[in-house]
Structures are given as C-alpha cells and as structure tokens.
Amino acid sequence: MNLDALDRQLLDIAQERFPLDAAPFAALAKQMGVAEAEAFERMRRLVLDGVVREYGAVFDAVRLGYATTLCAAQVSTDAVESVASRINGFSEVTHNYLRSHTFNIWFTLIARTQERAEGILEAIRAMDGVIQALSFPSKRVFKIRVFFQTSDVNTPVMAAPERCARTSRAFTPEERRVIRMLSEPMPLALHPFEEIARKAGIAEAQVLALIREWLEDGTMRRFGARVAHRAAGFAANGMSVWLAPEERIEDTGQLMAQFPEVSHCYSRASHPAWPYNLYAMIHGAKEEEVRNTARRISQAVRLDAYEVLFSTREFKKTAPRYFVDAEGE
Questions:
Q1: Catalytic site residue from 95, 101, 191, 271
Q2: pTM of the complete model
Q3: Reported confidence tier of residue 76, pLDDT bands at 50, 70, 90
Q4: Secondary structure, 3-state, 2-66
Q5: Could you confirm whether 95 is annotated as catalytic?
C-alpha cells in the first residue's frame, strides 16, 4: 500500500498518543489539519489494508496476573509445518515465528496460570518432530517501546518507553469485563469508546477514566495503533541474544535500551542448551542494517558473545485476549 504524508502522520500520532476522548477521530483530525471524517476513513483504510494490525490497549500481562514466557523449540525440518500449526492451535500462543537457527520455532505464551503454561509446553514437547523445547521467562524488563516512525513530520509523540509494572494486582468483576472488552480489537467506529462502554455495561466516561488510571499505574503499557512493521518500511527484524556476565546484566541492558533501533530489551532465564541471558529486538529496513546495529551495540557494551536470529516466517501474531472467563460476570 502506498502511504501519503497524511497517512504517515496519522500512523505516527496514533501509535503513541491515540486520543482518549469521546470523539478520538475529531481530536486526531485537529492535529492533522483535516476533517474528522477523513481522519476516521484513513484509519479505517489502514486497518483494513493491514498497515495497522489493530489499535487499542496493550496490557502488561504480568500486572493482570498472567504467566508469560518466551519459548524456543528445536524441530526437525520435515515437521516444522505440522508443529507450527499445532502450536498455533493454543489460544495462549500469541506470537509464533520461524527463525534461522537450530532452535527454529520461537513462540510466546501468555497463560492464565503458570500451571497452564507449563502444561502447554509439555504438550508441545511431546509432539512428533520436536527435539526439545525450552522456556525463557523474563527476569528484568529494560525497554519496551514499539514505535515505527513513518513520517518526516515533527509529530508530538511521547519519548518515554512503555510502562511495565511487572507486579500483579486484583481487579473487580466490572474491571475484568472492561479489560476483556479492551483486549479485543477496537471497533472501527467514530465513537469507539461509546461502543465499548455499551458492551461492558458502564458509562463511556468510566471506560476512559479506567484507561487513564491503568496507563498511569502500568496495568496498561500503552494505548495506540499497532503497526505492521514491514508495511511501515521496517522489513527486517532480528532478535539479538547476548551472553553477559551476571554482574554486568543491569548496566548492559540499560545501555542496549538506549539504542533507538531496539524496541524490546529483556534479561531472561538461560539454559545449559541456550546460555544467552539478554535479548534485544532490533529493527531496520534491511538485514544488514540490523547486523550493523548489533555490531554497534557489541562495541558499546563490550560483549562479543551474541547471535542475531532473523524471522523468516510469521506463523502467528495476535493480541492476547484477557479474562475470557469474565464473560458471564
């Protein structure tokens, strides 16, 4: 899809500062200098054409009490298709990629309980063709900032990374209903919060107040558009994995997080078969750009033990749906 200057400006604004307003597209239109109907129509088209995967809430799963982990499976070549398909069958699997490595299938699990997450992983280990499957839960979040600048316009966006509370809290049945509604794709409507409030059975002002509260306390990492990175011109993404001495993890992670090309940076549990303990997701227009960024990071943090794993195929990429068990409340 060809994006014009207004499309790109809209993408930049909507990624980080989607208006929390009863008439959000009127607020977007004012920033862009267009009519409300045009701002809405452009967003609708960007969603339908797949440039915007969806727009809305991005919650911190740990804050909601969910168990999350990154997993890697070593799968025989002839079983990749069948194993990937069966992994995709678990609703708790939100992302699933083929990567260029012996550990060739990488997926994320977001499960209601730790026991459920472990049960899914055991089921995957038992699949034909799976040689081994490992779990790498995060230990420390240094950065989560998913923002793909698409325009040259000086868009007034937030400079801070997304918030990560990383400690769980309790929610009322009403709050769980709202979270469930907000974890679904936002309605493609001029007044989307009005529709969410109607479905949740509460006032629109209360929905907006809860979103602001959850953004403030870290329950919600951000509220905005989730852009398909390839459509935004970032065709290459590499998961760089690093082996850092334990005493240097904190300082090294902080340094890695300062690179604008890095969207995610975590320390994770290691394994004898996989000793890496730091992860940084690097984005670029081409693979060589990603490799060059990794080399610059290596020089900055003084670490040579690293690899960059490129995704060669996307099997699944969905937003998690939370508190499905709240549907009857």
A1: 95
A2: 0.84
A3: very high
A4: CCCHHHHHHHHHHHHCCCCCCCHHHHHHHHHCCCHHHHHHHHHHHHHCCCEEEEEEEECCCCCCC
A5: yes
